[in-house]
From TrEMBL:
The organism of origin for this protein: Chitinophaga silvisoli
Domain of life: Bacteria
Cited Pfam families: DUF4440
Keywords per UniProt: Signal
InterPro entries cross-referenced by the UniProt entry: DUF4440 (IPR027843), NTF2-like_dom_sf (IPR032710)
Residues covered by the DUF4440 domain: 187-303
Name used for this protein in its record: Nuclear transport factor 2 family protein
Signal peptide segment: 1-26
Record flagged with keyword Signal: yes
Length: 311
């Protein structure tokens, strides 16, 4: 682990006005189906790490990961710089298994912290899962040694009746950038610019700040691409221009930023949305948490992934 690299973390992509995911037990989903989805994804998540760390069952792992699976970790360091694809992810853990097959050697064990696992539907065939995980080194006759604490987000897609993991984001705890860090200031400034464009219905700036590869996860509309997102924003701006005024306010104490070496940064925080109808007083209409993934391309930063939750 490269402890000299400063990190930052944010949690979940937001909607166009950053309306967040509804949890699986929301009214739009029956309690039975929500519980079933929670159990299925919990088992799938557990199998991924059992296959990686214990059984080295890479046929099963391959069946769980989608063909377009991507892995992102905020402290990528020299090993994980930027986005890691499915083939490299699997091959790296094959190498791990081959080096750690001695029964007498210390083993790495992953345990999800009780009570932290959550699941949210993001569409008819898509879902998001998040939680906190601990990694321990274990050896017979010795106490377990805690070596890592991290938060994770998994995105899932239902394909041919089977849930496939499409993305995994990992963020190490306590490695966020301090407020005096230049990266923190950069992302804070970009955040202000992005939401100023939303507040003022500035579609041109919004289009410029979102990358054309955008993945936008939304509880009502599901997974949307750049084109769909921009079309919805354009309609929303036109339909609401004469009806009410919207304003977003960031909870600055909640803002965290994590660098992704060779790629960009993850931003996490909480914010509130205010609406004023027909010139009346402002009302708080939403208080979600959010995550943005930023990619740096030369001197320009673009949002490539968005999620929102905790409405």
């Amino acid at each position: 682990m490269n402890t000299t690299v400063r990190k930052i973390w944010v949690i979940a992509f937001a909607a166009f006005i950053f309306v967040p995911f509804h949890p699986c037990n929301a009214q739009s989903t029956s309690k039975d189906s929500a519980a079933a989805l929670y159990r299925i994804l919990a088992i799938k998540d557990s199998l991924v790490y059992d296959d990686i760390l214990n059984t080295c069952n890479f046929n099963e792992l391959s069946s769980i990961l989608a063909p377009d699976f991507q892995f992102l970790q905020d402290n990528g360091g020299p090993k994980y710089t930027g986005v890691v694809g499915r083939d490299r992810f699997i091959n790296d853990f094959k190498s791990y298994c081959s080096k750690n097959n001695n029964p007498a050697a210390m083993k790495k064990v992953r345990r999800v912290v009780a009570g932290t696992l959550q699941a949210y539907t993001t569409g008819e065939n898509t879902a998001i899962q998040m939680g906190v995980q601990n990694y321990f080194l274990t050896k017979a006759g010795q106490p377990d040694l805690l070596v890592d604490v991290s938060r994770f987000i998994n995105t899932w897609t239902l394909k041919n009746g089977e849930w496939k993991m499409t993305r995994q984001f990992i963020s190490l705890e306590n490695f966020h950038a301090p407020h005096t860090d230049s990266l923190y200031a950069t992302i804070e400034g970009l955040d202000a610019k992005l939401f100023d464009a939303i507040n003022h219905k500035d579609l041109a700036t919004l289009k410029d700040m979102y990358d054309e590869s955008l993945e936008f996860y939304h509880d009502k509309s599901g997974l949307m691409d750049y084109k769909t997102s921009m079309e919805i924003n354009e309609r929303h701006f036109k339909d609401t221009a004469a009806k009410y005024v919207e304003r977003r306010e960031l909870d600055k104490n909640s803002l965290e930023v994590f660098p992704i070496p060779g790629f960009g940064a993850i931003e996490v925080g909480m914010h509130r949305f205010y609406t004023s109808f027909n010139g009346g007083p402002e009302e708080v209409t939403a208080s979600p948490r959010f995550v943005l993934v930023w990619q740096q391309k030369g001197n320009q930063w673009k949002v490539v992934k968005v999620v929102s939750y905790g409405h």
